Amino acid sequence: MSSREREAHTLAGPYAMDAISEPDRVRFERHLAGCQECAREVASLREATARLAAATAVSPPPALKERVLAAAAATRQQPPAVAPAAAPRPWYARAWPARGPARIRLALVTAAAAVTAVAVLLGVNDGSMRDQLSRDQASSQQVAAVLTARDATMKTGTVRGGGTVTIVMSGSMRELVFTAADLRALPAAWGYELWLAGPDGDRPVTMLPAARHGMAGPVVATGLRPGDHLMLTAEPAGGASRPTTPMMFDVVL
Amino acid sequence: MPAIDLPDPQGAPSGGAGAGSGLAALLNQVARGDADAFDTVYDQVSPTVFGIVRRVIRDPAQSEEVTQDVLLEVWRTAAKFDPGRGSATAWVTTLAHRRAVDRVRSVQKEADRERRLATAAIPYDEVAEAVEASLDRERVRRCLGSLTELQRESVTLAYYGGYTYAQVASLLGVPDGTIKTRMRDALIRLRDCLGVSE
Q1: Residue A69 within any structural domain of the chain
Q2: Could you tell me if residue A144 is inside a domain?
Q3: What is the ipTM of this complex?
Q4: pLDDT at position B116, please?
Q5: N or C: which end of chain B has fewer CB within 10 A?
């Protein structure tokens, strides 16, 4: 941990109590985006501050209830997954510019189909290639299943260092499809590794295959759990069992 | 707030306990525009919201105004509540506290400031006075009492007083860095003492 990171880390206490100036808040939220442990710590400290708040509880004047209920009846609610204008912006919202799902979905379907199409075009005779093909077909079927799930939702985000990420996820299947475009080229013997991280620690998902025409993936992550993060790091090509470099992308699913 | 609604096998949000888990379910209904659910949410959270807002702002009329804003924000943004990131109670109190702090920092009238300076140092005693009825309050009081004096003053000035850590440092005549770490240490100790599940 660099001294700068350590310094940012000590802001967890002030941040959890809103005892922080606006510039510090912005700085710390930037730090939080790449520090899952800090996000968890802040969440746990806020359970403590919630108790401090509860200890002050006192009923408001009864007339207030009528005013609030009347105002609510005249107030349109925000739909999910759109960053509120007035409310505190969640730190992870920054990474998610809105995007039309149709186009991306089409791109993903195309990519999945291309895997099969390429193998067919090449003509597949030898055994290893046949194995590869059946694996690819299994994977493209998996991809298609997620993309066509009734509850499939899509997110896009940007990768630190360059590139964009598209995720289509099905909560009911607990699976997601991940693709990345225009990732920065890594040195030889390095690759991008995808991770899921939850309360029980980090789980490697897979190394991303080398990009073709600027597009890496699609890959499928299965066994999603509530509260999981999806993260991307650069690792030695063989893959690591734990992230060894800073997160280039981190989002709460 | 994720758009993805992962089914939770336990059916209970992490961090929620007792009425807290009920609150998470109610917020879910509120997000779908259920006015009756919002009525119940109001009854459950308005004392805590009004309590902490009034503690920070002091002025009763402004406190009512901010309390109304907070509850309307709960109505408006219930869909943003994410049980994976903490309890429903913590979500609501964080909204409330932040709004209250924003209000006192944007107002910052001299007279108001002085009045708050004079009173901010005593919330611990006020908490102590307000104890009787509630076991929860008793526990908070006891846990605050288990902190070192510097930790306790840091927390009460920051959380109940609405001061930034830099202001607290200057009030207590202690370096910024010391206050920052004391605040974190104090909250960790409080969290453990209160038996708050993450």
Answers
A1: no
A2: yes
A3: 0.80
A4: 52
A5: C
B33: left (phi over 0), alpha (psi -120 to 50) or beta: left
Burial grade of B129 (CB within 10 A; 0-12, 13-18, 19 or more): exposed
In a domain, A93, yes or no: no
Q: Which helix (H) or strand (E) is A169 found in, with range?
A: strand A164-170
For B149, the token pair is 């004096």
Specify the CATH number of the domain B17-107: 1.10.1740.10
The pLDDT > 90 percentage for chain B reads 64
Alpha-carbon distance of B66 to B80, in angstroms, equals 20
Structural domain including A143 reads 101-252
Q: What are the two backbone dihedrals, phi and then psi, of residue B4, each rounded to the nearest 5 degrees?
A: -95, 130
Residue A84 within a domain:
no
B185–A13 C-beta distance less than 8 A = yes
Whole-angstrom CA distances from A135 to A192, A208, B164, B184 are: 21, 15, 57, 50
Q: Token pair of B45, please?
A: 């959270």
Q: Hey, are the CB atoms on B180 and A14 less than 8 Å from each other?
A: yes
Is some CB atom of chain B closer than 8 A to the CB atom of A121? no
Quote the CA–CA distance of A154 and A182 in Å, as a whole number: 19
Q: For tokens 């209000």, what's the residue? A: B103
Rounded CA separation B99/B53 (Å): 8
What's the fold here for domain B109-198?
Arc Repressor Mutant, subunit A (1.10.10)
pTM (predicted TM-score) = 0.56
Q: Do domains B17-107 and B109-198 have the same CATH topology?
A: no
Closest in A45, A69, A87 to B187, CB measured = A45
Domain boundaries, chain B: 17-107, 109-198
User: Based on the domain organization, do A154 and A45 belong to the same domain?
Assistant: no
Tally of domains within chain A: 2
Please report, for the domain that includes residue A47, its CATH number.
1.10.10
In chain B, which residue's Cα lies nearest the Cα of A45?
B187
- Residues 6+ away with beta carbon under 8 Å from B161: B56, B116, B120, B121, B123, B168
Residues 6+ apart with CB under 8 A from A245: A233, A234, A235
Q: Is the pLDDT of residue A131 over 80?
A: no
